[in-house]
Amino acid sequence: MDGTRRSDISKGALVAIVLKKDQRTGTLTEGVVKDILTNSPTHPHGIKVRLEDGQVGRVKEVLEE
Description:
The structure is a single chain. Helix content is 0%, strand content 43%. It is mainly β. The protein has a single domain (6-64), classed as Roll (SH3 type barrels). The chain has a four-stranded antiparallel β-barrel with strand order 1-2-3-4. The radius of gyration is 10 Å and the shape is globular. 18% of the residues are buried.
C-alpha cells in the first residue's frame, strides 16, 4: 500500500521512505516508524515520518504493520 494516507501508517510499522536528499533519485530507505510527522489525513507525496534511527522522509510504501 502506498504512503499517502495517514490511517495506513502506524508507529512500529515497517515502511520504505524517500529521504529529502534522495528525492531526485527516488532511492528508498527501509525502517520502522517512530513518529508520524504529517498531521493532515492525506498527502500527495507521502506522509512524513521519523524512523527509529532518526531519519526523516516521506513514506512511499508500507511494507508491514
